[in-house]
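User: Okay, second chain of the day. Same drill as before: sequence in, structure tokens out.
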Amino acid sequence: MSGYGATTVVRLGPVVDVLTTDQGTVALVERQVGHQVVRVSDLGSVVLELLEAGPATVAQVAARLVEVYGAPPDSDAVEATAKALGDMSRTGLISAEKPGAQRP
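Assistant: Same drill. Structure tokens below.
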């Protein structure tokens, strides 16, 4: 579990560029030394597109994913979204902050 709640704010990580073709999507993520290419799922592509407009809460991301894919059959949409966002955070595609956290 990611520990993200419905009000956790997520934003794009240090994504330098995104390339989408008929074979899928990859993102170029800036690292402390160099860059890394990360393959992005279809669901992740929807998330990146949403966050290009600015930060969003986990609940807002979940609502968008439900619009695109429908509700998950065996779990809560916010919980499923939080898990997916946790995976995206580990790859550097997004970052998250808990409500009330101070940004540097």
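The first helix runs from residue 42 to 52.

User: Thanks, on to the next one.
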